Automatic annotation (TrEMBL):
This is Hydroxyacylglutathione hydrolase. It comes from Vibrio quintilis. Residues 12-166 form the Metallo-beta-lactamase domain. The gene is gloB_2. Its cofactor is Zn(2+). Zn(2+) 1 binds at residues 54, 56, 111, 128. It catalyses: an S-(2-hydroxyacyl)glutathione + H2O = a 2-hydroxy carboxylate + glutathione + H(+). Its EC number is 3.1.2.6. The keyword ATP-binding does not apply.
Amino acid sequence: MLNIKSIPAFRDNYIWLIQNQEQHCVVVDPGDAQVVLSYLQTHQLTLDAILITHHHADHTGGISDLIRHFPRLNVVAPADEAIPSMTHPVRDAEQIEIFGHTFDILSLKGHTLGHIGYYHQGILFCGDTLFSAGCGRVFEGSYEDMWLSLQKLMALPEETKVYCAHEYTAANLAFALAVEPENKDLQHYREQVNRLRANNQPTLPSTIGRELKINPFLRPSQPEVIKSVSDRTSNHDPLSVFAALREWKNEF
Ligand SMILES: [Zn+2]
């Protein structure tokens, strides 16, 4: 069994930590080394590897300090991005082993050109591609790239736990409810999220099944979503609706 914990960093990042039974661990997207080092010390853990989803500093900024503490650290990162100290460049459809579990590398182009995700039966680390009730900004790729990446994630089993890199859920829900005010699942989820955040609890991981019900960016074929963007696009194909939603969210 892989035990997965969240280490909060900066204002709203999560660094996910995967732990095995023998006090060894791997961290995903360590933007800040200090919070990781103090967690390792408190829990008496040894860091074996780092997994990186994309090049942004809030995901990679802690790599060099962590290597100073653990010189034999493996740094698994997207081959198509310039990641400092990367030891294991990986590409779409390749696999890596984490404590005897095989993770598939998924290309998730859109937020950045080389963005990747890590998937192992029921567990997904998707960086800044999919958030709960939202998706990442399309900085380097095209809307089509991002929509193709999200469709890959939509095809994963519904029970898949989605470990996103940011706690954006509450703000995303305000937008999602503007798009689909009548969506009962969304209304119910907002109450749940409000309770969690009031107690300073993470809303993550989410699941693919839940996101399919509440995330407007995964629902561009729903009549209520299409209606909400009808003044922004006359095309009702999923890609055009997705692009209209993303532009609306950018200015929301
Ligand atoms: Zn990013």
